[in-house]
Amino acid sequence: MKFWIGLRQKFWFLPILFSLLALLAAYLTVELDRILTLEQKRMWFFQALLTDIDLAKIILSSLAVAIFTMITITFSSIMVVLTTYTAQYSPRTLQNFISNRITQRVLGVFVAGFIYTLFILLFLNRTQAKVLLITPTFAVNIAIACLAFFVYFIHHVASWIQVNNLISQLTERTLHSMASHFDTVLGEESPPENMDLLFHKTDLQPVTAQDSGYIQYIDVAGMIRTAARDDAVILMEKSVGDFVTKGAKIFSYRRFSEREVKAQEFLDLIVLGNERTAVQDIEFGLHQLVEIALRAVSPGINDPHTAVNCINRIGTILTTLSRYSINRPYHYGRDRQLRLILRLQSFSYYVYKSFYQIRHYASGDLTVMEGIITALQMIAEAGPPHNKETIWDFSRYITEGINTSDLMDWDKYYLNQRLRHLAVTTGFETAYRPLK
User: Which residues, in sequence order, are CB contacts of 247 under 8 Å at separation 6+?
Assistant: First the structure.
């Protein structure tokens, strides 16, 4: 998993893989041309698809130039998207476009097509002059495929560069990560009965990180299996998304027998990287949306509707998150012995981290403040009842940051309507106090 996560973030992986396949395809098509006789070619292919060596070189040279031109335009389009993301949205959103499978595959197809035509040109130098070839036909088909991918890539770039589509992609990716990986992180809510006897500071053996970086992934199943094998219990001192420095304590363990605990094997199950990823880090997906919202409400851009769109998407993620019982850090092995304790955050933590910066920088924008109240209303309506008190308390935190002296009567009227509706939904109607 550590190798795959590192490889998945590399922009060059798929282009290199496609290039190797193109080399193999070039060799096989040339060998096919060499093995087939002229009668077999005429029997299996149309006569118009067979070319002589001179025409083949002209066709392949033209195709190589055309495909290289498409590669150049593709790189230019990618740079435009990266510049736009960095300047207007957030530098943290770059990896979403770079690691997108469509972007990597399109570039891989172009590079593979270019390499395919070049190597066929090299292989044709040893071909007899009076031989009819079928290889250029394969090259023409690959060029047509590259053209189709090029048209689709222009559509792909035009879609991704739109901020609403970017916000939607970030939301879907975070929800997908939550559905795919969050269940593996969650264990059981109840600690063992002998919890006080299991842990004493003098019994815990600390293990320090060998590198610095963000915790991107924890192989929970692997940690449980290894702890069961070593008859130990692991206490994580850091959580996914935390930054650890070399030599800092990353987890502790306690042995229950004389078996040797191989700390390096546990460290290999924890992936560190230079940046955060959304594989298990739900907070990172929320931060990306928060940063876009903050850029939108900045004085240089002043686009509150984009900020409200981000807030609505954050509300969607938090609504889904509220349905999980996330206070479940205890993981047991097959023998029902405690093997792993993770550091997990509460629902109130995610709510605070999602909105506190927006509240601070956009407290004077009534549209954004109303958007936060509306998002809290959405979470209260679709979420479980045990989170309603947290939502109501947080709404009071939001309204405390609003300078009511700057509000007109109509502003207070409509904002109070939102607050009254939220109070009824959360069951705190008696605690509701209108803004004055």
Answer: 208, 209
